[in-house]
Specification:
The complex is a heterotrimer of chains A (286), B (244) and C (303).
Chain A: H1 2-32, H2 39-56, H3 60-83, H4 90-112, E1 129-131, E2 134-136, H5 138-160, H6 162-172, H7 174-179, H8 184-205, H9 207-210, H10 216-231, H11 236-256, H12 261-265, H13 267-275
Antiparallel strand pairs in A: 1-2
Helix pairs in contact in A: 1-5, 1-6, 1-8, 1-10, 1-11, 2-3, 2-4, 2-8, 2-10, 3-8, 5-6, 10-11, 10-13
Chain B: E1 4-13, E2 16-26, E3 31-35, H1 42-50, E4 57-62, E5 65-66, H2 72-77, E6 80-83, H3 95-104, H4 121-132, H5 148-160, E7 166-170, H6 178-189, E8 196-200, H7 204-207, E9 213-218, E10 221-227, H8 228-233, H9 235-242
Parallel strand pairs in B: 3-8, 3-9, 6-7, 7-8
Antiparallel strand pairs in B: 1-2, 1-4, 4-5, 9-10
Chain C: H1 2-16, H2 19-44, H3 53-69, H4 74-96, H5 101-121, H6 123-126, H7 144-167, H8 169-179, H9 181-186, H10 191-217, H11 227-240, H12 246-265, H13 269-283, H14 288-302
Helix pairs in contact in C: 1-7, 2-7, 2-10, 2-11, 2-12, 3-4, 3-5, 3-10, 4-10, 7-8, 7-10, 8-10, 11-12, 11-13
The chains are: A mainly alpha (286), B alpha/beta (244), C mainly alpha (303).
């Protein structure tokens, strides 16, 4: 019983991480119609940057913040210098983000080497916690809590602020948004940086669970894709629900049928796509 | 048997009703004109008939066959053809190739993925149709290089090539010069009687003499319908146009 | 006519080149088939795919498994591999074509990643990260020259088949769906079916390139099913210029030569691949073949 409880918590923690990863991807895709294939690499870059920051400042949360900011800055330049120039060239944008992903991946290999680097759990959260008669690793509970906080913060941003209203308008109808005077270009940059920051910080926060290793980007990108396709493009709620469904399916899949976990992983996505091409909560079909 | 019959068709976008319970019946061989001010729902109606849009409720019948749920390409195979207000043909291809694509749409040859395709009967037929619209001399030119008026004629040729039973013309005279308009009008007048023609035009004066019966749409509903004389005489028609 | 001359030159090549270059040429032929099959979707169908390495990889794995585990010969393994790959393409096409454009791209990517992940994890079948080794070539063609002629013949046949496909009535309709899909529907074409058939056909030829691949290397590893491999194929098409028959072939040669040259000096091929992507997309979006042709025409008009 304890085993299943642990697996449930693992699912929730993974779901939380996937939400941090996929929410940015979904927003970028929804607003800018860019399938940002660099996203997995940004997650990994964040994790590796976190490793280095931790050597100076042994505080995971500060490292996550620093990594998130650094990755956001990288995203700023990527969007402004390259992606902006390719506006309207959808395939070009995809290829460029893919190219940049490869560059980041090899860069990380050169700088941090080929061995996986574990990221230590913050000491305060190392002791296991007793909840409802079960014993849980405290850190995973923290990840879940953090993901929920971030989800709420994003929800408030989207629903209660001007910036959020502009983003929503842009997702619904970019032409109209421009016509009404919404500064779409600046919005694009802001959203791209936000998405990158979430991915980068997510990499650090996921560190104690996943470590930083070469190939982390290739592992995370398809998960982000599945979450967004399943949950629907441009929808935070979709990213949230999709992340947790995916977290559960993956964790239990690996536990029950490790050989075919990857096949089980994409079954919900196929089922949803077959009946609803726009995903569960998508604003439009991808 | 009606060539085209629309029964209580409804379509709304968000909360906005674009087509509000439209019913009409076009007899075989008839020349029907659908007019109405901008936003009346004329093109939306065409889009519903061709299947580019799905109706919320109501039904569409082509020679007493219910096509309401059919895919667009299936309706073409049942004898429906259409021209578009905005020209969306194939600019990099020659006029002849554009017409070949139209002819292929109904031909079994389109599934042949092995035979070479260069010179054969289909290309001869394409030229024949171009001759009908007096454009055969431009058959080898890319579509992008011909004039707007000539493109409009190609649009009509694309539809006629399929020998449709019902032909929908969406503002065939839009943007044409006086001379070009006369050419296209003559072309439309020359369409054989085994083709039923339903035409949308925005400019009432231009199109009146092309029609036998006229349907006036306003805000997605039929306001007036009848023969040319009846519609012209009806005060509601004037109101709809003068109100703008 | 140009093609015949070119083919004749290629046929005589082994007399001139050393073993290293003959092997390199064989690899180019294999990659050319792979790139050409991607181009059916991208250049002629207007459907960018990032999941094509799945077809190369699955055909390779199926061939390896049938010969290794069932002890069968290539006469059985090859058709079995191609059948399996084509069925997978048919299934994946059903899923991926629920969307177009970016959605299609993401679905092809996700599906291919699943196959890749399964190749790694289903260790009992695929031996995971070790890959499958100790494979054989058909007709015992272990020397470079005979394999060169074999891969040349298969590649030439494959490309000829794909050329006939794009030049056929179906190919004309396919190009129509690339340029104006809604209009094609309005003309009576079943756009979805046209795309699905093309998807399956492209998957089949991707499988053929996979067979050549596994015969050449006598080894298959999950890395051959990776996104990077699909991206390399896509790069070859883009570099050479999509929408022409010659483009992917030239692109395949360019990418292969670049890879071989670069690996002597640079350890990080992926980084170079990434840079090349960015540079080509930003500076030479039409690809090398059209770019060179333009330069050639400008040169001629000046002379």
């Amino acid at each position: 019983m304890q085993y299943w409880a642990i697996q449930t918590l693992n699912s929730l923690a993974l779901g939380g991480l996937l939400f941090l990863l996929a929410s940015g991807f979904s927003l970028i895709f929804g607003l800018m119609r860019i399938a940002n294939l660099t996203h997995g690499a940004l997650f990994m870059l964040g994790a590796y940057l976190g490793v280095s920051v931790l050597k100076l400042v042994p505080n995971l949360w500060l490292a996550a913040l620093a990594a998130g900011l650094a990755v956001a800055v990288f995203g700023f330049f990527l969007e402004k210098i390259i992606l902006r120039k390719l506006a309207g060239n959808v395939l070009g944008q995809v290829l460029v983000t893919l190219g940049v992903a490869f560059i980041i991946a090899d860069f990380c290999l050169v700088v941090w080497g080929g061995d996986p680097i574990p990221i230590p759990t913050p000491p305060a959260l190392q002791a296991p916690v007793r909840v409802a008669g079960f014993i849980f690793p405290a850190y995973r509970l923290a990840v879940l809590a953090l993901a929920i906080v971030v989800a709420l913060a994003l929800f408030l941003l989207m629903e209660k602020t001007r910036l959020g209203a502009m983003i929503r308008a842009g997702v619904d109808d970019p032409e109209m948004a421009r016509a009404v005077g919404i500064p779409v270009s600046r919005l694009f940059t802001a959203v791209f940086c936000l998405g990158a920051a979430l991915a980068g910080a997510g990499g650090v926060i996921g560190g104690p669970i996943m470590s930083a290793y070469p190939g982390l980007d290739a592992d995370m990108l398809p998960l982000a894709l599945i979450v967004v396709i399943l949950g629907g493009v441009g929808s935070l709620l979709g990213a949230f629900i999709g992340a947790f469904i995916t977290g559960f399916v993956y964790t239990f899949g690996v536990a029950l049928l490790p050989d075919l976990a990857y096949v089980i992983l994409f079954l919900p996505m196929i089922l949803v796509i077959a009946f609803r091409p726009r995903g569960l909560f998508g604003k439009f079909a991808a | 048997m009606a060539a085209l019959q629309i029964k209580s068709l409804k379509k709304a976008f968000g909360g906005l009703p674009a087509i509000n319970g439209v019913s009409l019946e076009v007899a075989p061989g008839e020349r029907r004109l659908i007019i109405g001010p901008n936003g009346a729902g004329k093109t939306t109606l065409f889009n519903l008939v061709t299947g580019d849009l799905r109706a919320d409720s109501g039904s569409i019948w082509l020679f007493e066959e219910d096509i309401t749920r059919q895919r667009t390409d299936r309706r073409v195979h049942r004898g429906l053809a259409r021209t578009y207000q905005i020209i969306t043909l194939f600019p990099k291809d020659t006029l002849e190739h554009n017409l070949v694509l139209s002819l292929l749409g109904l031909s079994k040859t389109r599934w042949n993925f092995f035979a070479a395709f260069d010179r054969n009967a289909m290309h001869e037929e394409a030229r024949r149709v171009l001759r009908l619209v007096a454009l055969e001399h431009l058959a080898g030119r890319p579509l992008a290089e011909v004039s707007y008026g000539e493109k409009r004629r190609v649009e009509i040729a694309m539809a006629l090539a399929q020998k449709p039973r019902v032909l929908l013309l969406d503002e065939p005279l839009a943007g044409l010069s006086r001379e070009e308009r006369a050419t296209v009008k003559a072309l439309i007048a020359g369409i054989p009687r085994d083709v039923t023609v339903v035409m949308i035009e925005h400019d009432m004066d231009t199109a009146l003499d092309m029609a036998e019966r006229i349907t006036v749409l306003h805000y997605g509903s039929v306001i007036v319908e009848g023969t040319r004389a009846e519609v012209v005489a009806d005060p509601k028609t004037r109101e709809v146009y003068l109100g703008h | 006519m140009r093609w015949l001359v070119f083919a004749a030159l290629l046929a005589l090549f082994p007399l001139a080149g050393g073993e290293y270059y003959i092997n390199l040429a064989s690899q180019i032929f294999i990659f050319a088939v792979f790139a050409a099959s991607i181009n059916l979707l991208l250049g002629y169908g207007g459907l960018a795919t990032l999941g094509h390495s799945a077809y190369l990889g699955v055909a390779a794995y199926l061939s390896a498994l049938v010969t290794l585990r069932l002890g069968a010969g290539h006469a059985l393994a090859a058709p079995a591999a191609l059948l399996g790959t084509t069925l997978m393409a048919a299934l994946f096409g059903l899923i991926a074509l629920r969307a177009t454009g970016l959605g299609f791209l993401m679905l092809t990517l996700a599906l291919s990643q699943v196959v890749w992940g399964t190749a790694f994890r289903w260790v009992s079948v695929t031996d995971g990260d070790n890959g499958l080794r100790g494979l054989s070539r058909p007709f015992g063609m272990d020397d470079a020259v005979s394999f060169y002629y074999f891969s040349f013949a298969v590649a030439a046949f494959s490309i000829w088949m794909m050329a006939r496909f794009v030049r056929s009535p179906f190919g004309a309709a396919l190009r129509g769906t690339r340029d104006q899909p809604r209009r094609m529907s309005a003309l009576g074409h079943n756009v979805w079916l046209i795309r699905w058939i093309t998807f399956v056909y492209a998957g089949f030829w991707g499988g053929v390139s996979g067979l050549l691949f596994v015969y050449y290397h006598k080894y298959i590893h999950p890395i051959s099913l990776s996104l990077a491999n699909s991206a390399e194929g896509l790069l070859a098409v883009i570099a050479g210029g999509s929408g022409t028959l010659a483009g992917p072939l030239a692109g395949a040669a360019i990418v292969m030569l670049l890879k071989n040259w670069a690996s002597a000096y640079i350890e990080r091929w992926n980084m170079l691949l990434g840079f090349v992507f960015v540079l080509i997309v930003v500076f030479m979006p039409e690809g090398v073949v059209p770019g060179v042709r333009k330069l050639w025409l400008r040169f001629r008009s000046r002379a």
